[in-house]
Amino acid sequence: MTKTTAFALSRRGLLGGTAALAGLAAMAPTSVRAQGAPGAYPLSEFFKPTKSAGAGLSPDGNRIAVGENLGTDIAPRSAVDFIDAADPEGQRRRIDLGTVWIDSIQWASNDRVLVSVIMRGETGRRSQVGSNVRSDSVEYFMRRVVSIDATRGDPVVLFADQRTRMRGSFDMGKIIDMLPNDPDNILMAAWESDGVLALHRVNVNTGAATRVERGSGGTYTWRTVNGVPVVRHDVNSRGTMESIMVRAPGETEWKLARRSRIRDAPDFSWVGESGRDGVVLVIARLDNEDVLSVREMDLATTRLGPPLNPRAGRDVYGGLLDSMGHYLGAAYYGDRLEYEFAEPALAAHHRALNRFFDNTCDVHFTDVDRARNRFIAYVNGPNEPGSWFFYDKTARVIVNIGQARDLDVTRLGVGEVLQVPTRDGSTIEAYLTAPPGGAPGPLIVLPHGGPEVRDTPSWDRQMQVLAAQGWWVLRPNFRGSGGYGQAFAEQGWTRWGTRMQDDVEDAVAHAISTKGLDASKVGIMGTSYGGYAALMGALKRPDLYKAAIGICGVYDLPDMLAWEDREDDTPGKPIYEFWTKRIGDRSTAGPALEAASPRRRAGEIACPVLLVHGVDDSIVPLIQSRRMRDAFRSAGKSVDLIEIEDYGHGDWPDAREQELMTRYVAHFRQAFA
User: Fold this and answer.
1) What is the distance, to the nearest Å, from the Cα of residue 554 to the centroid of all Cα atoms in its chain?
2) Whole-model pTM?
3) Are 96 and 405 in contact (CB under 8 A)?
């Protein structure tokens, strides 16, 4: 195959118009078809409102629905486009939804599609009874689900028959079960007036709801098989631990199966039905195993079966189901998103789609029809901000049906995977993104949070904003990260500031040497654990880092452990025990923990530092950043701390994030000048 032919058969060739391949179609927006690399985007382009919000395929595979946000953040407007799957490039039929934002979209049956929408409201100025003093109007947001007939339109708001509940609840958008064998109903969760979550059967044609059962005081969701609740998740008051309650078919009482962490390296999650009565599929790891795997769980005994489709050295990312809820395989991250299929025939089609995207993107199957013939794939990658594609394997058709952002891939930074040799003879992965054009220059390091999570080779807006400045961006998966199995994670336990930090430095050295980057202009920035790694890096290597930014970071390890001890209200203090295992025991490792705390050694940090923290952060308390600021000032060093009112652990809106990214860029640019 010649280079010209290979390019023509790739996504870049098809979308660029180099060749038309018989039987394959690609509907690309004008911006994607643009030739050349006219230059990097300005920062503001990355913060424009999301366009397509999702795409769904009807269970029979005959219809496609695409949610489109057509307005702005100030003046929202949205619509649903319906497409005939037999003619995916044909005329679309649009149904306008008015002044709402579409959050997600999925089919309830072959005839009705469900759209989760966000609506904005205001209380209006009010006065209390007996007073003429009027309070200011307050803006608020609500989530609702709208059911739309694919032929007639006929939108219906679910729970519309319960006006009191609708007025008293901001979130009425939690779908539990699409009930694929019941085209008229779905199961949804909604809050009762006393603050307890209840499960309801909701008619998608009329919106009428009937309560099925109430949860307990901490219930936040259910899992069902054929419409019957079999697993219930109850959370503690702090939101850190959940109790997994199960109820086998024929049983009337819920029983505790296990407890699991919610935020910090969760070790249990739901997949779906197994096809066998009284048995479901979950993701879990036994004590003697290295990786998280999909496996069966017996609801009567809560016993876990052997792993299904496991992969050595890789934790399972999730399960893949078809439109009927049947298990098709397990997802993993290798060089990109990959599947171990329970139905091997599907593997060739996923490989073909990967080749179509030049083996550079994650191809997520989000919808699979009952016949396994038609698919919706959500595609994103280092320089692919997210698009939805329809694939018909019989007709040999691939069509772009929606895209999240109107960004030309040729004007974005290109990413690659690095295999980094560490100083002690191990190997870690890191993701390196070049600036548009790929010219050597400064380097920004982005250690991830967690730390027991991992970075993936997928779209990251922060990464692309920095690359657009002409800077290379490095995201290392140091030892202690999640996703690579328990043994890899344990290599970082009690190694905060030592081995975990060494791995980051080794990745920096590898990137600089292999790409010829400017070693005199290196900056580091991170959130949560990444904020810790940023300041610890600046402390350990004042010769390397010219600027550091810590966002919602941990800067004093003994203080953080003491806070976790005080806050953990769960019997046995499992969250405090979790962090003691990973950071260190205050009673035996006090001096080492102090030495690994940037706050205790602020005077050794030479580069300019910017701190950012949400005032309402419930994961890492604001006091960590305030005390870090105070330590800098006591050491005679200047530092800025930006406190974000009314927000928590990096959860602020895009408008504020844009302001902060502008500040981050200025901080690094000044340091590199």
Assistant:
1) 22
2) 0.90
3) no
Q: In which residue are the tokens 């890096």 written?
A: 537
Distance CA 352, CA 389 (A): 13
CA 505/CA 208 separation, integer angstroms: 59
Residue 591 in tokens: 């001096």
Are 433 and 414 in contact, with CB atoms under 8 Å apart?
yes
DSSP string spanning 184-251?
A: TEEEEEEE-TTS-EEEEEEETTT--EEEEEE--TTEEEEEEETTEEEEEEEE-TTSSEEEEEE--TT-
The predicted pLDDT at position 126 comes to 60
Q: Cis peptide before 476, with omega less than 30 degrees from 0?
A: no
How many C-beta neighbours within 10 Å does residue 664 have?
24
Tens digits of per-residue pLDDT, 417-474? 999 999 999 999 999 999 999 999 999 999 999 999 999 999 999 999 999 999 999 9
* Secondary structure of 442-461 as H, E, C letters: CEEECCCCCCCCCCCCCCCH
Q: Rounded to whole angstroms, how far apart are CA atoms 284 and 264?
A: 15
Phi, psi of 340 (to 5 degrees): -105, 105
The C-alpha atoms of residue 401 and residue 388 are separated, in whole angstroms, by 6
Q: Kind and range of the H or E element at 488?
A: helix 486-490
CA angle, 273 as apex, 270 and 279 as ends, to 5°? Answer: 95
Strand-pair partners of 134: 127
Structure tokens that stand for 417 in this block: 């995977």
* Separation between Cα atoms, residue 312 and residue 485, nearest integer Å: 8
Q: Can you spell out the DSSP letters for 356-370? A: HTTT-SEEEEEEE-T
The whole-angstrom separation of Cα 198 and Cα 159 is: 13
Contact 284, 257 (CB under 8 A): no
Those residues whose C-beta lies under 8 Å from the C-beta of residue 97, and which sit 6 or more positions away, are 78, 79, 80, 115, 117, 146, 155
Q: What is the pLDDT of residue 161?
A: 85
Distance between CA 156 and CA 92 in Å, rounded? 21
Tens digit of each residue's pLDDT (9 = 90 or more) over 281-332: 999 999 899 999 999 999 999 999 999 988 999 999 999 999 899 999 999 9
**H/E element, 656:** helix 654-672
Low-confidence ranges of the chain (pLDDT < 50): 1-38
Of 533, 528, 535, 524, which Cα lies nearest the Cα of 552? Answer: 528
Q: Is 630 helix (H, G, I), strand (E, B) or coil?
A: helix
Sequence-separated (6 or more) residues with CB below 8 Å from residue 540:
497, 501, 505
Query: Could you say which DSSP state residue 393 is in?
Result: T
